[in-house]
What does this fold into?
Amino acid sequence: MYEYEYIIIAVLLLLISVIVIRINKKDFTIKINKLIQFLGGKENIIDVTKNMSRLNVKVKDTSKVDKNAIEKLGAKGIVEVDNELKIREDKENELVSELSKIKDALENKEIVFKVKTGASDKVFGNISKSQIADEIKKMGFNIDKKCIKTDGNIDTLGVHKVLISLHKKVEFFINVVLNK
It folds into this structure.
């Protein structure tokens, strides 16, 4: 009896996956159709090439192109040279969204370091950005030490607020704790 329940669950998960894929494909198709419309229709498009961050489109008549509508669709900028449009895609929103997920997972977390101290609790050495990055990596996130900002040396016992700057729009603090 349990085997049938697993089979039913697997079939339901597969069905849900297919539905999600079709919805995303439908949204993509709608976006492409709008882009074609904003470029003046299929008849106006001569050639299309795509590279990393640009869509290059040769058109017959640039006056038929609705640049404002293309920008509202997600283009970061449009450069027109003769009858060719260079449409720059806006990938920043996707990047900020992904980095915000990291922020949500790490913000206000504590990283604890056990340190050796001398007389009157003076810490031997200090905690480096590389050490902080290594501890964050153990949490499952690979953050470059250049993204870690400190106010001087971390060389005293207690809690130290450390800024993590992944992007100009994604910054947050973690707590670095030095204990004996």
The longest helix spans residues 2-38.
